[in-house]
Amino acid sequence: MDDLNAIVRINISNHDYLPKVDKSLKDLSRKMQLKGFRQGKVPVGVVRKMHGDAVLADELNRILQEEMNKFLSEEKIEILGSPIPKTDETKQKLDVKQPNDYEFVFEIGLAPIFDVGFLDSKTTVIRYDIEVPENVVDDEIENIRLKAGEVEEVNEIEYKDVVTFKLFELDENGEVKEGGIEHEAVLSLDQFKDEKVAEKIEGMALNATHDLNVKTAFGDNTHHVAHHVLDIKDEELEQVNDMFRIEPVSIKRTVKADLNQDLYDKVYGKDVVTTAEEFRTRMEEETKKYFDQQSDNRLDRDIMDQLLEATEISLPDEFLKRWILETNEKPVTPEQVEEEYEQVAKSIRWDLLVSKVSKDAELEVSNDDIEEETKKSILSYIGQGAQYFDQQQLRAWSLNLMKDENHVKQTYERVMSSKLFKHIKETVTIADQSIALDEFSKLNQQT
User: Fold this and answer.
1) Average pLDDT over residues 87-113
2) Residue whose C-alpha is closest to residue 5's, from 73, 86, 60
3) 248 has which bridge partners?
4) Phi and psi (nearest 5°) for 292?
5) Phi-psi bin for 203: left (phi > 0), alpha (psi -120 to 50), beta?
6) pLDDT surpassing 80 at residue 447
7) pLDDT of amino acid 389
8) The domain that contains 27 carries what CATH number?
């Protein structure tokens, strides 16, 4: 049809399918259970009458798949999506009693041929060197102290406390309603969206009481009020009075751990860090490492966008839209396909670029690469516990994960992506540019 679209016609004669259809029907007759016949003794003619057309359809589909794959492989044709039957030419009545010859017609979308002119030293991509302010390190240290802290019972509510409240439904006279809702809920102060109510609750003493409108105190989130505050169904909330009395019966506060050797050992292992200065230096290094990773992620994204923008890749758009419409797991409308197609097309173009660049650069992912990446994922998952893991255990765990095809596929794609970006970064010019953290955050929000 053109450089991006083609028609494939597959002719199947009755000699191609009849022997296998007959064999399948005989096999079925030996396994079939049918009232009036002993198992294995159902006549083939009866089976043919009952299931012949279905068996014929299965055999034709098998032949079509084999022939299509063989044709594409022998002709070295790369396609996008999968072949779509042309319904106006392919609709045929299948009848096992009349073994005709058949012709099936398919539309295919062809992978485009294109050049990548982006990959040379004249191309410059900016890598942002994020300046991390002191307060970010301070906050991270405070978070670690909080995580390592101990929970204590206290007598007065402060902002970050976790409080168990008793809630009592009130009647029209402001008294506890007889037979009304009485429930205990664990809440924090930030869940109270009514600022006046929050101000009243902050500073409340243990076993003090306060009356509030439960339907407005938590904002307009009626589901939260019903399920998490009162433990009732959403539809039951309308029958409940607005006013409730709350009473804190337990106030728990996490007291931050002191900056001492116990904390250093808990975070980094025994005697790895021994002073507050060393601890802060470690935290600065780790915080910088985290933001360097954010910068690298941004660099990869910018490389992807610039590469896509600089490379003209035409697609069989109308074919792909029909393919999405006909093969999507969940039913979609033409309007939905049209709305989301730009992102789908971008993803397809990027996959084509990855394939071409990795092939041109002879990038490969070995089984050893997949195993090493799997080990890294395991160590990242277990975190601090990694220091207690020996290499034999680690390898056994990684090999067990590699039995999962989905894991191998995802890991392969991750490793190939890493190798691809490494290759591109070595080919183009990377220019470092300092940027304040808040400016970097704004940049990421804008694009």
Assistant:
1) 82
2) 86
3) 165
4) -65, -40
5) left
6) no
7) 67
8) 3.30.70.1050
